[in-house]
Write a structure and sequence with these properties.
The relative contact order is 0.18. The strands form two sheets. The chain has a seven-stranded mixed sheet, with helices on both faces. It is about 30% helix and about 20% strand. It is α/β, with parallel strands linked by helices.
Length: about 200
Amino acid sequence: MREGEVTAVILAGGEGRRMGGRDKGWEPLAGRPLIAHVLDRLSPQVDRVLINANRSLERYRELGYPLVSDREAGYHGPLMGMWSALCAVDTPWALFVPCDSPALPEDLVARLREGIGERRIAVAHDGERAHPVVALVDTALRDDLGEALAAGERKIDRWYARHPWCHVDFADRREAFANLNSPDERDAMERRLRADGSF
């Protein structure tokens, strides 16, 4: 896998139910929206970034990155966002991350690339649990994912299990995978930022 062969995809197309139905990408953290923090982490690691979103589309477009919405309306979960992005990506690999993980590792792409070996999917693992939506995926799997979705599949783990895949160990960066799913989680990270000035 060479430089330039990975497109980063930020998944920002969910309902945000635990965030009161708000668009999580635009929730503020330390005076900036979550999507801005994620872009700061990803843009130095890849040549291309794509955002998957289903609302606030004009605001996302203003960020200056290509935008793709789910190919089927109705909030069908992250697999739908992943498939929709895979259909738009023209690099051999896609790196998926959620829009609510603002402290992702600065070497995320390099370590997933190193760890994937001959497999087709690599999933980040923080030493305690896996993070299925932080994954490096072979874009040639787009048709298989489309077929799985058409058959009713909505579980990421079950779809991964259909293919050669692996976990990549990030136990030394466990805090980097904090998800801000609720206002309480966001506020807790805000307090931490104010206390030490960093993630």
